[in-house]
Amino acid sequence: MTTLAPKIQSLNIDNSNQEQIDEDMIIQGIKFVNYKDESQIDIVMKLVGRDLSEPYSIFTYRYFLTRFPDLCIFAVPENDPNAEPIGCIVCKVDPEEDDQMNENEGPTTKLCGYIGMLAVDTSHRRSGIGSALVKRAVRRMEHMGCSSIMLETEVTNKAAMKLYEDRLGFMREEFLVRYYLNNNDAYRLRLWLKD
Ligand SMILES: CC(C)(COP(=O)(O)OP(=O)(O)OC[C@H]1O[C@@H](n2cnc3c(N)ncnc32)[C@H](O)[C@@H]1OP(=O)(O)O)[C@@H](O)C(=O)NCCC(=O)NCCS
Q1: What is the DSSP secondary structure assignment for residue 127, as one 8-state letter?
Q2: Which residues are in the N-acetyltransferase domain (predicted)?
Q3: Which of 125, 154, 179 to mutate to test the pocket of ligand 1 (most atoms within 8 A of CB)?
Q4: Could you tell me if residue 168 is left (phi over 0), alpha (psi between -120 and 50 degrees) or otherwise beta?
Q5: Is the distance from CB of 148 to CB of 112 less than 8 angstroms?
Q6: Selected residue with higher pLDDT from 103 and 73
Q7: How far apart are CA 147 and CA 96, in angstroms?
Q8: Pocket residues for ligand 1 (CB within 6 Å)?
Q9: Residue from 80, 57, 60 nearest 72 by CA
């Protein structure tokens, strides 16, 4: 059985490009900036690593950031030119899992976006930054042709569950028993974008 993965197009987004931005993706005093290059990997690791129950290796970060630089977005305070990012999201795009296993002859065409990491510094939480980062990343993955977006989160992570389910319309798809190294269970959540 051979299935051909669809070509995943890079967006080639730079900060000057005009993306379609809705009002709820704009946060007063915060600018949203694209990941540039490997020199920023420490910033991502610092932001994301603080809240992780299990550490990711640098190879995991590299996998996402090298293959999908357009899908890493920082939130940075606007008023200070030297300000460090206070939030970030890291995503990737894969062929849909069901599609890869399908024994049909033609190439698989469905793409699924995946949110690998999301973090907002404690001092800036509950201001809509997390939601704005997710919406911006989802918009990009939709633009790349994804028909849905997936992620996993610990069942005990109330903030993430509320953000994804209540605020953004993700739905519970699977309960993953002892998914994390700390033995915590997870939900796999999915947001359907189109057929
Ligand atoms: C999850 C996280 C990214 C949310 O970031 P944020 O910028 O505070 O999120 P928002 O301000 O956009 O919140 C949107 C909604 O999510 C829910 N929410 C966010 N934080 C919450 C909390 N601590 N308790 C309950 N609900 C919460 C609320 O419904 C909130 O809307 P409201 O403020 O109008 O009530 C942030 O808490 C974080 O970095 N946590 C640690 C890392 C993490 O858990 N990442 C997700 C892994 S899957």
Answers
A1: S
A2: 30-194
A3: 125
A4: alpha
A5: yes
A6: 73
A7: 9
A8: 51, 118-120, 125-131, 151, 153, 157-160, 162-163, 166-167
A9: 60
Outline where DSSP puts E strands in 18-138.
30-34, 72-77, 87-95, 111-120
Q: Which residue of 45, 120, 121, 172 sits with most ligand 1 atoms within 8 Å of its CB, as the best mutation to test the pocket?
A: 120
Return the residue whose CA atom lies nearest to atom 26 of ligand 1: 159
Q: How many angstroms separate the alpha carbon of residue 166 from the centre of ligand 1?
A: 11
The closest alpha carbon to 74, from 46, 113, 51, belongs to 46
Domain 23-149 fold is Aminopeptidase (3.40.630)
119: CB partners within 8 A, 6+ apart: 47, 48, 50, 51, 87, 88
Atom of ligand 1 nearest to the CA of 130: 7
At 10 the pLDDT is 60
* Closest to 184 in 3D by CA, of 36, 29, 52: 52
Q: Please, are residues 143 and 125 in contact by the beta-carbon 8 Å criterion?
A: no
pLDDT digits (tens, 9 = 90+) for 91-134: 999 998 765 555 555 666 789 999 999 999 999 999 999 999 99
Beta bridge partners of 118: 89
Exposure string for 17-29, b = 16+ CB within 10 A, e = fewer: eeeeeeeebebee
Domain ranges (residues) in the chain: 23-149
